[in-house]
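The protein record quoted for completeness.
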Amino acid sequence: MKKLISIGVALALLALVVLPVSAAAYTPYEEPTTYAKIPFAIIAAVFGLLQTVWPALDVALGMDMAWLTDVFGETADFTFGPLGWTVDMMAWGLGVGGSVITALGAVITLPFDVGGLMNTIACSMFAPFGNVTGAQWNPCT
């Protein structure tokens, strides 16, 4: 019994390494424009891989859930596209909010520099946004 459990653990650990690497290697999507979008590209690649292998798994397991192929495809497209831009938009919104609060600093009395804090958070979110294919871009320099 212990040997069977050991084999199962070894296979599980192998799957934890092989599946993400193979999913990241196989991607029908273009290269992410910034480093901050790489996690979204990896997740989209995993859903793309599931879309590709699901028909064979569905038949092998006899589950009759072929409709999941379309769900995996749509999820991959959404993850790589609109969902990947949420990081950009949230950082931009924090930057705008920080600038507005800093501008209102003479009118509003706050216990600490909230506008500066928001701008620091926005700059930290933009820090990994070095372009993969072009020149470096950092709005906080």
